[in-house]
Every structure is written in structure tokens, then in C-alpha cells.
């Protein structure tokens, strides 16, 4: 099986997929880790969360889409 060659998977996530009333979306992240890093900043600035609780982080991971 051949991977890559310009068609690397991208990771996407939208806040609303975990029940947030929020239109924020992460697109074109290159890894799950990158999505979580972006969301850490977003959660802090937009949702006033100092940290993402582990149960929410799990939910986020389950809702990250690979495209
Ligand atoms: Zn949000």
C-alpha cells in the first residue's frame, strides 16, 4: 500500500461536533496533536477553559475527521 505523494491526510474538527454552540472549525491540521494544540488555545480564548478536561479531550479525539 502506498501512502502520501501529495495526498496526505488532513485532520478536521468542528467545535459543534462535541455539542458546543460554536462555529469554530479546525481545518488542514497535519496531525491529531496539532488539532488538540489549536483547540487548547481556542478553548481558552473562546470558551474560558484553562484546560481541556480529559473527558472532553476524548470526545474531541473521537470527533476529529480525517480527510
Ligand atoms: Zn468553540
TrEMBL record:
This is Small metal-binding protein. Pfam families: DUF1059. InterPro entries: DUF1059 (IPR009409).
Amino acid at each position: 500500500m502506498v501512502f502520501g505523494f501529495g495526498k496526505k491526510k488532513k485532520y478536521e474538527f468542528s467545535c459543534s461536533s462535541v455539542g458546543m454552540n460554536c462555529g469554530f472549525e479546525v481545518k488542514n491540521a497535519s496531525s491529531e496533536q496539532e488539532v488538540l494544540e489549536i483547540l487548547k488555545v481556542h478553548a481558552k480564548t473562546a470558551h474560558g477553559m484553562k484546560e481541556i478536561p480529559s473527558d472532553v479531550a476524548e470526545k474531541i479525539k473521537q470527533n476529529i475527521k480525517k480527510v
